[in-house]
Amino acid sequence: MSSKQMFALNNISKSYGEMKALSSLSLIVEKGEMIAIIGPSGAGKTTLLNILANIIKPDAGEMTVDSKPLTCYKTPKLFAHKVGIIRQQFDLIGQLPVIQNVLAGRLKDWGLLKSLISLILPQDKVQAVKALERVGLSDKVYERTANLSGGEQQRVALARLLVQKPEAVLADEPVASLDPARAEDVLFMLTKLAKEENQTLIACLHSVEYARKYFKRIIALKAGQVYFDLPAEELKDELLASLYSLGDES
Amino acid sequence: MKKRNYLTLFLTLIFLMSFASVGWSKNLFHSGGSSTMLQILKSLLNPNLSPELLKLAFESSWITVAYAAAGISLALIIAFVLGIPASGVLTESTFGKWMSFTVFRGILGFMRSIHELVWAWLFVAAIGLSPYAAIFALAIAYGGALGKIFAELLQTVPQEPIKALRSAGASKLQILIYGYLPQALSNMVSYSMYRFECAIRSSAIMSFVGLGGLGYQIQLSLTELRYNEVWTFLFFLIVIVSAVDLWSSLLRKKMAEAAASRLSFVKLSTVALAAIAAASWMFIYIAEAASLLDIFNAKNLEHTKDFLSGLLGIGQAEPAFFSLESWKNAIRLAAETLHISIIAIGLSAAGMLLTVIPAARNAAEGTLTLKRKWYNWPLYLFTSGLYIISRSVPELVWAMIIVYILKPGILPGAIALALHNFGILGKLCAEVVEDLDLRPVRNLASSGASSGQILVYGVIPAVMPKLLSYILYRWEVIIRTTIVVGFVGAGGLGQQFKLSMSWFHYTDVTLILICYLLLVALVDLFSEGCRRIIQ
Amino acid sequence: MKKLIALILTAIMLISLSGCSADNQPAADKAEKSVFKIGAIPDQNAADLNRNFGAMAEYLSKATGLQVEFVPSVDYAALVTAFERGDIHMAWFGGLTHVQARSLVPEAEAIAQRPRDEQFHSVFIVQKELNVDKLEDLKGLSFTFGSESSTSGHLMPRYFLMEAGLDPAKDFEGAPNFSGSHDNTYNLVQAGTFKAGALNEAVWEKAVAEKKVDLNKVKVFYTTPAYYDYNWTINSNEYVDKVFGEGTRQNVKEALLSMDNDQADILALFQTDKFIEANNENYQAIETVAKKIGIIK
After folding, report:
1. pLDDT at residue B26 in the model
2. What's the total number of domains in chain C?
3. Would you call B223 and C178 a contact, using CB atoms and an 8 Å cutoff?
4. What's the whole-number average pLDDT of chain A?
5. Is pLDDT above 50 for C71?
6. Are residues C175 and B408, on separate chains, in Cβ contact within 8 Å?
């Protein structure tokens, strides 16, 4: 039973100086779930995601990933097998060709020598090319990444995740800097790939509309706490209105 | 704003005082100096272009380039090995960061504080007259300079991609090669190219430790008073330095462009540079029969030990650094060195200020003062040509020529340094004028200002702070170089350094090096403080 | 781009590695060692030195059966250093460099010299139109020595100047110059760059004989008393007999001393008709002077 839990958070708190980003937050995420996290700016979405990603440490509370406490993941490499991240498009090294950015997802499995060789003779090339095919960029394998459009760059980041093959994907505003058409395109692909790979997907989104359209479970944060946690179809407009209203902050 | 003006006034006063304190009473030319100068200038018009000499000049040029390339390629390795830890990107703990900042920055700073020719002399004393003495000297001085810049470039790369790599499970070294290096690479390349140009000049003056090449031929022709040959070799040096300069600015431009065509030029350049480096090492190994491992033998270890204990004064009755008399003398020479450097920077700054406006492309095109005169273009070509000649010739070579004209003392060294730095400052500062925001100028013009008024009210106040900080920056470089012009009898610590090395007075050498390092550190501090006020 | 940089680095490494491994071959090492290298202080122009000592190396090769090679040096100190390191097996030193070399290699030995080296002189030269005929008259004129490590171009002239009551640091017009070699010295005085200078008598005589110097412009006004100068100094047993076989020092010495009319053309290059025995004790006086002046501590 417990092995089905991807993430379990218990009474997690985090503050930055005076500001409380998260207060006593508890949450359980089952494997294979597709979750969107919404909420007004400053609600603690990014902090939560960074804690899930093991980038920042909570001040208090416990967390397990795949039912094991974080101390079990001694190296970043081990953790990278469990959790992968996609952010805005600035995640890529613009100076490198597309394929190298995709192959960066393999670094966790490679030694230094292999990584060095790969810069000259790309290793595991078939895997990378396949990933690029799945995101529809098979014609841009050797293109300089900086020359790609924003949407294309996000698709490269998706291909990197395909190669990295984590059990869970955390997406932090993955479409924030894209126009609507491209944003939909990227979200569609993100959710589709996660489904195909049987991955758990947690995404922070600004847009409630996208959250409803592409995700099954929606968690709303407000002032560092869970405001509501509902299946997408049960989400009511009144609830949303009060989530984003300015007045009733305690 | 006020502060800056006071500083400018203060610095100008220091220069004028230094300038006035040169013994102007006696005439400064050799009795035959003016006629020598005339001969030298006359032979400029008919350089020796005989086939044999041209062949020799080509061979010597290759030697000079080869040693520069070998030195720089080794310097690049040093710069990576030391610059990466010095950037702190591999360490996370505060202690680790502190260690990398202090220890590795310290090493790099020490390496570049000492001029490459001084390193070369020290290496010759330790490992003998091997071509590697020159290569190591170049590698250490340039490795220090490159390493410092590399560390700074690595520190300033965008952090988002680095974080992404970290969360993808990449190790620190993997992050380095996939994240930090690719992002910093283009700046690293253009700075390395600039340093390669400098290394060619340095390689030429390695003739002082017995290296062949253009510098050696210039030295030979000078001692035999064959000035027309001197000019031939100088022309070769000027052409090579300008060619590398042109290449590096083209490369910089192409690398900044995002177009697909840039790749071919960049790739071609990289292949060409690699080929030059490989050919250079091959040449040094085969033609000069100098193998790298030969240096690391027991005998050299013994000699190095002897030399070092000589420097430290082990087993000597009276090491110079414990003698008050020697200290007094060394401090007097350090003051003289400082004096030389002040006159040098003052003269080159004055020369630059007089010529920088006509040397700016926008002045030639008439966009700067919004007046176009027929003489703008010829004047532009003339001044920028002057800059190229001036900076292509190393200060030591200028000094070698000038000691034939002026009497030994403070002035020949100062003038040699000024001649070389005039061209460098001129180029840097002309670029400042070219990059000037022209809108205020147009406003002045539309309110009816004349060209002169535009210059005085619009251009000069706008560029002055930048020019001033370039001048101060060059002064830091000059103080390091002042010691080497002393080698040819141009005074200061350098002359004493050479005498002490020739007479095997190694503790005196140590004392001189201590004073030299202190002087460099002092000037760096002062200049840094001044630049902070300016900004 | 990144690829290429990596390629270059690998290429450089490979090249330097292959370079390193190649020179481990003992055969190459031996061939290198068995060359008997002679050197000379660069007191004249490079072309002359190459010709003279090249001829001498050829003769010594024939006379001793060794493979003898002349290795040119950039300056006096470099030769002394190379000698100390055993890179040079026998050197044509001046008095001062001989003394310096012996303080670094106590076993080194002066084995041969020209008859004139027992009675060597420096000459002081001045521009002809100047009214100078004794050392004291040099006061206030610009002056050049030869190399700072030269016996006849610096050490002894400085000594005799001091004996005449002149302080070279103060009494000339500006600091005295170091021209680097004897040829440079007369060239500079003749060109008018310096008013006066001091140099090796032998080089001066040769320049006069070969008409390299214009006697209408330059004159000699003072010749120093005699002192010991140039000699052939051979390195210690460790670097000579142990490497080239027992008795090599003796063989080389005999080869030098047995030069006669058959080698007249080579001897002429050295401006002599024979070499005679030399010994270390002859240079006691030079050492004393060098100490007095502060060149040797």
Report:
1. 55
2. 2
3. no
4. 87
5. yes
6. yes
